[in-house]
C-alpha cells in the first residue's frame, strides 16, 4: 500500500514515517517546507515532497497514485488557524473524493461531551476538520487523541515545562477536569490500524488505561522526573490570563499555548463504546510507563526525543552539568530560548 503522509515532518509524522516503513508500506512524506529527508534520518525508501495543503493542484498531484492518506496537518501556531485548517481540509477532501484513495486517516482531538458552542476554538476547529474529511470517502476515520505523551509532543512538553519550572504551582480550579492521555507508540499503532481496508471508520477515541485530573498529570510528570512540587488551587484565574502566563513561562509558540490552555476547561476522556482497541491485541501503554520513556534521554522508541523535533522542545546539554536545582535549569533554559529565538534556526 502506498501511503501519503500529510504533515510528515511534524511530531507524529516524523515518527510515523519510519514506523510505516517497518510495516513495509510505500511512503510518500509531504510537508509544507522544502523536503529535507536527511534531517529526519529517512532513507531512499521515502519519497519526500513539498505540498501546500491549501493548493488544489499540489494536493491533487500528491494524492495521485496513492492508496491511503494520513492527515496530520494542524496550524495552531498561527492566529488564523481555524480558517487555514478549514481551507486545507476542504482542499484535501475534494482531491480525495476525486481519486482512488481507499483510506483516509485523520489525527483529531478528543471532543468533550458538552454543547458545541462551549467548545474551545481549538477543539471546535478539530471537529470541523474531522467532519469535512469524514465526508470525503466511506473509508475515512478520525482518531481523536488528547495529550500525546512523548518527548517533543507539544501538549506534553508544555505540561512538562510547567511541572519543572515552578516550585509552587497555582492550579486554576477550572483545570481540575479529567484527561486521558495516550502514548505516542499507541497513536502510531492506531494509525496503522486505520490504514487497513477493513479498519475503523467514523470517529474513534484514543486513550491509555489511566484517567487523571490535570494536577495529577503534573504530579506524575514531576514524580517521574524526581521533582517535588507544591500545587495550590487558584479559584480566580481567567483562561486568557492562564494562557498568557503559560505562554510566557514555556518555550512553546505563543498561539499554540493559548489555544491549548483554552481546551482544559472540560473533561478530555474517551467515550465508552467508541474507544480504539488494537487489532493485534495486547495492552495499551500506561501513563507512568509512557512518561518514564519520554523522560529517559537514551530511549529510542516513539516516546523518545528526535534531533528533528522543534527547537523549542530540544534539551540544552550545556545545562546538564550545572549544579543548580531543576527549577533553576528550567528558568535558565527559558531565558536561553528567548535569546536564541532571535537567531536563525539550525
TrEMBL record:
Stated name of the protein:
NAD(P)H-binding protein
Which top-level group of life is the source organism from?
Bacteria
- State the taxonomy lineage: Bacteria, Bacillati, Actinomycetota, Actinomycetes, Propionibacteriales
Q: Which InterPro entries match?
A: ComplexI_NDUFA9_subunit, NAD(P)-bd_dom, NAD(P)-bd_dom_sf
Q: Which first-to-last residue range defines the signal peptide?
A: none
UniProt cross-references to Gene3D superfamilies, sorted A to Z: NAD(P)-binding Rossmann-like Domain
Pfam families in alphabetical order: NAD_binding_10
Record domain NAD(P)-binding: where: 7-110
Amino acid at each position: 500500500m502506498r501511503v501519503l503522509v500529510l504533515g510528515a515532518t511534524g511530531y507524529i509524522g516524523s515518527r510515523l514515517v519510519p514506523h510505516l516503513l517497518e510495516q513495509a508500506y510505500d511512503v510518500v512524506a509531504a510537508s509544507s517546507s522544502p523536503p529535507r529527508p536527511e534531517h529526519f534520518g529517512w532513507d531512499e525508501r521515502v519519497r519526500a515532497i513539498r505540498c501546500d495543503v491549501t493548493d488544489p493542484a499540489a494536493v491533487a498531484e500528491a494524492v495521485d497514485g496513492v492508496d491511503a492518506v494520513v492527515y496530520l496537518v494542524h496550524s495552531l501556531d498561527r492566529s488564523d488557524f481555524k480558517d487555514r485548517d478549514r481551507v486545507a481540509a476542504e482542499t484535501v477532501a475534494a482531491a480525495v473524493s476525486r481519486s482512488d484513495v481507499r483510506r483516509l486517516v485523520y489525527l483529531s482531538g478528543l471532543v468533550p461531551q458538552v454543547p458545541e458552542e462551549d467548545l474551545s476554538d481549538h477543539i471546535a476547529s478539530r471537529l470541523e476538520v474531522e467532519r469535512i474529511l469524514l465526508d470525503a470517502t466511506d473509508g475515512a476515520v478520525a482518531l481523536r487523541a488528547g495529550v500525546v505523551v512523548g518527548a517533543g509532543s507539544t501538549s506534553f512538553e508544555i505540561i512538562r515545562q510547567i511541572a519543572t519550572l515552578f516550585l509552587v504551582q497555582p492550579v486554576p480550579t477550572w483545570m481540575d477536569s479529567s484527561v486521558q492521555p495516550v502514548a505516542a507508540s499507541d497513536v502510531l499503532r492506531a494509525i496503522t490500524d486505520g490504514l487497513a481496508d477493513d479498519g475503523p471508520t467514523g470517529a474513534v477515541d484514543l486513550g491509555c488505561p489511566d484517567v487523571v485530573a490535570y494536577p495529577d498529570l503534573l504530579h506524575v510528570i514531576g514524580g517521574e522526573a524526581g521533582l517535588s512540587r507544591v500545587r495550590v488551587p487558584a479559584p480566580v484565574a481567567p483562561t486568557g490570563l492562564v494562557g498568557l502566563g503559560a505562554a510566557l513561562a514555556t518555550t512553546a509558540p505563543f498561539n499554540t499555548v493559548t489555544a491549548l490552555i483554552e481546551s482544559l476547561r472540560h473533561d478530555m476522556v474517551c467515550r465508552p463504546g467508541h474507544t480504539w482497541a488494537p487489532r493485534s491485541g495486547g495492552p495499551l501503554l500506561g501513563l507512568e510507563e509512557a512518561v518514564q520513556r519520554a523522560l529517559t534521554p537514551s530511549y529510542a522508541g516513539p516516546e523518545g526525543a528526535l534531533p528533528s523535533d522543534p527547537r523549542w522542545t530540544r534539551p540544552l546539554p550545556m545545562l546538564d552539568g550545572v549544579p543548580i536545582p531543576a527549577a533553576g535549569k528550567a528558568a535558565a533554559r527559558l531565558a536561553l530560548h528567548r535569546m536564541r529565538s532571535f537567531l536563525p534556526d539550525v
